[in-house]
Amino acid sequence: MRREWLLPLGAALLAALLADVLGRAAGWGALGPGDGRTRRVALTFDDGPSERTPALLAVLARQGAPATFFITAPAAARWPDHLRALREAGHGLEAHGRWHTHALRLPPWREWAQVRWHPRAAEPGPHLYRPPYGGHSPFTRLLARLARRQVALWDVEGRDWTPASAADLAARTLARVRPGSVLLLHDGPAVTPELLEALLPGLRERGLTPVLLRDLPPHRIGWREGLRRVGTSYGG
Ligand SMILES: [Zn+2]
């Protein structure tokens, strides 16, 4: 190869690498919020089932709200009764990984197992997959496509892993929610049932109805929204 090619080639490779890293951070092409013209939102809970599942189920039942739970394989094995209760209550069950490990810490063959595991693998799709921490490796999109999983992210974080009070978290979440939003909450933190209790009437006051994520339905994240995600997301 002639020398004068090296600089443009290096620049092109660097640009491709940066675009890949930025694209993965932005979530471009993954499923994000739904259409802003409908008055629907989707509540999603990551990391369960857990000891907190019955409390979340009680609040959801009392307030008549459906939700979508992104389950991990170890949690499903540990809390089979809670998983059954979620299913029987009609909530959505989707995958949050064979392990709760960031994609960048898994070699590709383990990430394949990570992406492929699903609590409803034997049932007809669509099957959604939310990577732990929203983290993508360079292989995540390809592996998800091969495994027929759709990567599903979010646009509003409930931040229930921080030490703030339920009332503060609810107020901050409601300030950011809009029609079509996908809210990220967790099945595990002690604060989340109380946060949910405050969140649901707030959504109703704004004329927003919680639906299952698949009924939102979520749309693919475009470049503008992706850039906004880079600035505001902390990962779940
Ligand atoms: Zn998680």
TrEMBL record:
Superkingdom of source: Bacteria
InterPro entries referenced in this protein's UniProt entry, alphabetically: Glyco_hydro/deAcase_b/a-brl, NODB_dom, Polysacc_deacetylase_ArnD
Pfam families attached to this UniProt entry: Polysacc_deac_1
Every NodB homology domain range: 39-211
UniProt-listed PROSITE patterns: NODB
Name of the protein in its database record: NodB homology domain-containing protein
Organism name: Deinococcus aluminii
Organism ancestry: Bacteria, Thermotogati, Deinococcota, Deinococci, Deinococcales
